[in-house]
Amino acid sequence: MTVSMTGFAAQKGQGAGFSWMWDLRSVNGKGLDLRLRVPDWIDGLEHALKAELTRQLLRGNVNLSLKLAREDETGPEALRLNGAMLSGVLAALKQVEDAAMQAGVTLGQPTGADVLAVRGVMETSALDSDSAALRAALLADVAPLIVAFKAMRASEGKALQAVIAAQLDQIAVLLVQAKAEVDLRSATAAQTLQQGVAKLLGAAEGLEPARLAQELALLAVKTDVTEELDRLHAHVEAARALLAEAGQVGRKFDFLTQEFMREANTLCSKSQSLGLTRIGLDLKTVIDQMREQVQNVE
């Protein structure tokens, strides 16, 4: 089953005297890029979460955030002023004001709220608590969050698989049309070849038979699209097999779409007919649309 790299899950929980809110989301990425925003005072939490996400996920830019609140402390008593930090901030402000005054620059006066907003000036009493029980509760609660997250990525992947399968069907239909156009083109191939021979003979009198045969062979090769059509058919079958595979197939699929486009470009360059050129351009359009979808496959 195809898995998408796009997903989202949110979950509330409580335990060890706290309540919390998880937010886990991801978009496509070349590898697995984890970005976590969790309280740093809970020893070992971030490391444990990264280890679990790395074990569960293969690719994607993944963001996990945790908002935590202490249930038994809701008023000012839940906060405390860090005197050392406050003194440092005020001293730094004085240095800035003195330097600005010497430079003839007028600064706006900071408010008390501005000072309190500096990180570290105000602390929560949660910092004094034993974080082991809380860490255990959070790690137990994150498991169903990841399950829901993976379920959404699987659901997105199912829809993605249907879209890509339909695009492969479009490509297969266009290849049938291309083969029919090639068969029609072959009716005029003899005339085209005769015109090519006439140009060669007119360009160089007394052309050697061996050289003439060589030029005719090159002309035939330039207009023969059999190999391109065969490769495109093979690519369609390979893509369908990838859709049925489990695990990380996004990189393989991305490479395969490049091969699709390479053959479609060659088909257009060798078309020698308006009808085949039109089909080739339609192929390139569908392949490019499929490539965009494949970018989200894990």
Average pLDDT, rounded to a whole number, is 86
Oligomer: single chain
- Please work out how many helical segments DSSP would assign: 9
Please count the beta strands (DSSP E, at least 2 residues each).
Answer: 6
CATH top level assignment of the domain at 157-294: Mainly Alpha
The helix-strand sequence is EEEHEEHHEHHHHHH
* Poorly predicted residue ranges: none
Task: Characterize the structure shown.
This protein is of the alpha+beta class and 298 residues long. It is 61% helix and 14% strand. The protein has helices at 45-56, 83-102, 112-116, 131-186, 189-203, 209-223, 226-244, 250-269, 274-294; strands spanning 7-15, 18-27, 32-37, 60-70, 79-81, 122-124. The strands form two sheets. A four-stranded mixed beta sheet has the order 1-2-4-3, with helices on one face. Strands 5-6 form a two-stranded antiparallel sheet. α4 (131-186) packs antiparallel against α7. The relative contact order is 0.13. The model has no long low-confidence stretch (mean pLDDT 86).
